[in-house]
Amino acid sequence: MEIQLKKFQSFQPPILRGIETTSDCESWLEDVEIPFDSFEYPDERRVNLIGHQLQEVAKSWWIATKEALEQSGTMITWKIFKVEFYTRFFPSLYREDKRAEFENLKQGPMSIEEYVTKFSTLLRFAPHVTGNYEAVIDQFIGD
């Protein structure tokens, strides 16, 4: 595990203190996922490593959340971590606004690169679409 931690931290992933803005929390999650995706870390390793990037309020939140999940018998996967993370650090109104923005997203005057970036960023707020490849494609092309 120590070797994996050093490898992960060689990317210099950011620290989350739990007092950042919603936008900063979103950027933090994107930034910590880069090394996870690069090394193709499995869920279990991601969950174990992420605790090292949390401090102060965020660390306290994760310790309490992890304990509650374990006591309820929930297997903590990366997906579960992200659900809990969004619930805690993204107010429901913010998530609803982002979901509506995703559902109403059209390419319009954006370049394809801009559209893909915006689509990908907002997709995380539409879990009802994320698990269904055909629904993602339909939303992307505007059907």
Work out the count of structural domains.
Answer: 2
Low-confidence blocks of residues: none
What is the end-to-end distance?
46 Å
Strand content: under 5%
Continuous helix count: 9
Largest sheet: none
SSE sequence, one letter per element: HHHHHHHHH
Please estimate the helix content.
55-70%
Summed over residues and divided by their number, the pLDDT gives a mean of: 88
Report Rg. Answer: 16 Å
Query: What is the overall shape?
Result: globular
Number of strands: 0
How would you classify the helix and strand content by structural class?
A: mainly alpha
Descriptive report:
This protein has 143 residues and is mainly alpha-helical. The protein folds into two domains: 2-90, no CATH class; 94-141. The chain is built from nine helices and no strands. The mean pLDDT is 88.
